[in-house]
Amino acid sequence: MPEYAAYDSINVVGYELDGALSATVKRIEHVEQVSAFNDLPLVLQRWNAVRRDTHRVCTLDLLGHSTGASRHLELGQSIINMDDPTIIVQATTLARSGLLNRLFIGAVRLLGCSTAVELGGQRTMRRLSHVLGIPVFGTSATLLPSHYSAQGFDPIFRHILVDVRDMPPVG
User: Fold this and answer.
1) Per-domain residue ranges of the chain
2) Is 61 helix (H, G, I), strand (E, B) or coil?
3) C-alpha triplet 22, 28, 29: angle, nearest 5°
4) Which of 14, 36, 87, 171 has the fewest CB within 10 Å, making it most exposed?
5) What is the phi/psi pair of residue 36, to 5°?
6) 4 touches 137 (CB < 8 A)
């Protein structure tokens, strides 16, 4: 299995940045900003037009805060919750677009605080992985700006990433 944390990433964050997210974004060389989850195909189409090394596996890193008890990732005006029919349709549209394959996106990472800790976040990771057909990672800890470098999430902190494939089955 490839170490997705060690590959290139396409970093995406919502437009509304508070102090912590703003400090994180300032550390990263290139970050795409979106208003909501449904903007991802437009961002990826732009990347598809300019990405030169199209055979190198990369991750789609979605940066944001996580919601209260369920720990779903907030991306702009969207809460990525695969119990929400709108998000399911948007994720399905993204999967069917073929952009993930064309860009060699090998995983999606939900980079918000503890997005893999609570059952709601874990359920979303499982369902999103199923719909997109690629692994989804969440986090097991609070994220700080220091978890990022100029390229995005710093691979030195990969130990706080939780791979959906390593989560215990739902019983």
Assistant:
1) 14-164
2) strand
3) 125
4) 171
5) -165, 170
6) yes
Q: Which two tokens stand for residue 135?
A: 């692994």
Spatial separation of the C-alpha atoms in residues 116 and 137, rounded to whole Å = 8
Q: 13 phi and psi, to 5 degrees?
A: -140, 160
Strands (E), the chain: 8-14, 32-34, 58-63, 73-75, 78-80, 105-111, 136-139, 148-149, 152-153, 161-163
Residue of 70, 102, 152, 16 whose CA lies nearest to 80: 70
Residue 111 φ then ψ, to 5°: -95, 80
Contact 135, 129 (CB under 8 A): yes
- Of all helices (H) and strands (E), which one includes residue 108? strand 105-111
Q: Whose structure tokens read 């030195």?
A: 156
Per-residue pLDDT of the chain (171 residues; tens, 9 = 90+): 334 444 489 999 999 888 889 999 999 998 999 999 999 999 999 888 776 656 778 999 999 999 988 999 999 999 999 999 999 999 999 999 999 999 899 999 999 999 999 999 999 999 999 999 999 999 999 999 999 999 999 999 999 999 999 988 775
Distances, alpha carbon 110 to alpha carbons 58, 82, 124, in Å: 14, 13, 10
Q: Helix, strand or coil for residue 19?
A: helix
